Amino acid sequence: MMRLRIGLCLASVFAASLALAQGGTDKRRSGYQDMGPSLQRMQDDGTSNPGMLFVQLGAEAWAGPAGAANKACADCHGASGATMKGVALRYPAIPEGADTPVDLEGRINLCRTTNQQAAPLPAESRELLALAAFVAHQSRGQPIAPPDDPRLAPFLDRGAAIWALRQGQLNLSCATCHDDNAGKKLAGVTIPEAHPTGYPVYRLEWQTLGSLKRRLRNCLVGIRAESYAYDSMEYVMLELFLMERARGMAFEAPAVRP
Amino acid sequence: MANVLINAPKTAKRGEVIEIKALILHPMETGFRPGTNGSIIARNIIERFTATWNGDEIFRIDLSPAIAANPFVSFFAVATDSGTVGLRWSGDEGFQVEESIAITVE
Amino acid sequence: MDRRRFLAGTATITLLPFASAWATPESMAAAIRRIVGAAAVRRGRVTLDLPPLIENGNTVPLVVSVESPMTAADHIKAIHVFNEKNPQPNVFSARLGPRNGRAVVGTRIKLGDSQTIVAIAETSSGEFWSAGADVIVTLAACLEEAS
């Protein structure tokens, strides 16, 4: 009897892991799944997704020489951008020769300052978002795959701690809304699970493209907390935590969100 | 400047009704919103979008501040003869953008 | 009900001399009168396709379709869309003709609040047909402060 039960247990564990491999038991939801069909269509159709305007601008910026080195992104990385396939899936990461992680926008600016010898692009500037969108778009449809770099562990831990930290006048943590109450309604809106599957994202609220940092700042403002400066490490650590939490989910950039 | 996305078939049968969709980068500032200094941000919208087929106007739409940022317009056209579909956006602050696409009618 | 009575009727409309700061059902009625003049506006032939529950009023997909053969002799000349609660009642006016093949126009609009949207089509013989839609705009819970 006992042996049979264990056998059944093993069989169901095996079945579960098989299903997991096929994505069947993955209960995580992208914000895409919480949108109505008209917004889903807006995201899916390349010529109706306003984020694609920025991908197009990014392709231009990619081809244009910049800085004292007078080099274009395309000169090193190829004209099509195909070499960027998979890159957005594994950021934030620690660049070669550094010991702290940078996110995708940070990596683009690192390339500008070191290789192109140009000034870094300002946070949320059209050109930086466009380049990020161009690079991110190359990874559309692929699973999010953070790097297995043990040096990231302390940053990941700090990111997890910020996620769980109650802060602001409302005394809420990220986890209060997006882990404990995800799927419920806040005003008329479904609280999303906050997976960063589509950044940079075209947010209808903004009427433009924006970064994950901008979105995190929105949340901090929402809970009446002081937001971190755009160049602070807190965002990179939170982004690192969020990408790890979304590991394996399909990447959608440039996504459309309400 | 590549700030326009146009979706239309490259070829069509004569007499076929095709859909043309166009998206353009533009803030469509309404003229009703206060800026960070409290004063109203000046209106800056696209007022008109026109489509021509080999030079003949086939569609026109006058837009208001109620049209969303980065305006999207879709309409239909009868594929009459091979040639050029011209799209033109014009509006406040001297905004003028023209794009054209080639279409082959068999 | 008011809208239906307005669209069906012709005589009971009060014209406002000036548009108020915000569109109202009255200013929408006035804007419609400026387009249709004294002609009757009938319900039908027009389909107004909007999501019933709008997730963000900044960008609302909208498609207006009108039944018409779109021939030289019998076609839709114009499609107009109006709203009653944005700052101005006019949304767009499109000019069409037989070369369009189908009387269908799509765009994306801004809606400041839940309200009624009206689409009116003008036929080549001078008739006006219409459709109305009530939409609910949900407001985001966490808004970005002006920065």
Description:
The complex is a heterotrimer of chains A (258), B (106) and C (147). In chain A, 44% of the residues lie in helices and 5% in strands. Chain A has 258 residues and is mainly α. Chain A has a single domain (29-258), classed as Orthogonal Bundle (Cytochrome Bc1 Complex, Chain D, domain 2). Chain B is mainly beta. Chain B is built from no helices and eight strands. Chain B starts with a strand and ends with a strand. In chain C, strand 8 and strand 9 form a beta hairpin. In chain C, 13% of the residues lie in helices and 38% in strands. The longest helix of chain C is centred in the first third of the chain and has 12 residues, at 25-36. In chain C, strands 1, 3, 5, 6, 8 and 9 form a six-stranded mixed β-sheet that branches. Classes of the chains: A mainly alpha (258), B mainly beta (106), C mainly beta (147). Chains in contact: A-B, A-C, B-C. Chain A binds chain B through residues 45-48, 50, 52-53, 56-57, 59-60, 207-208, and chain B through 1-7, 21, 23-25, 27-28, 68-70, 72.
Give a summary of the structure in a few sentences.
The complex is a heterotrimer of chains A (258), B (106) and C (147). By secondary structure, chain A is mainly α.
Topology:
The complex is a heterotrimer of chains A (258), B (106) and C (147).
Chain A lengths: L1 H20 L15 H8 L6 H13 L9 H5 L26 H13 L9 H12 L15 H12 L9 H7 L4 E2 L2 E2 L10 E3 L4 E3 L1 H11 L10 H13 L10 E2 L1
Parallel strand pairs in A: 3-5
Antiparallel strand pairs in A: 1-2, 3-4
Helix pairs in contact in A: 3-6, 5-6, 7-10
Chain B lengths: L3 E4 L3 E2 L4 E8 L21 E8 L2 E8 L8 E7 L4 E9 L3 E11 L1
Parallel strand pairs in B: 2-8
Antiparallel strand pairs in B: 1-3, 3-6, 4-5, 4-7, 7-8
Chain C lengths: L1 H7 L16 H12 L4 E3 L2 E4 L3 E2 L5 E7 L9 E8 L6 E6 L7 E7 L5 E9 L4 E10 L10
Parallel strand pairs in C: 1-9, 3-9
Antiparallel strand pairs in C: 2-4, 4-7, 5-6, 5-8, 8-9
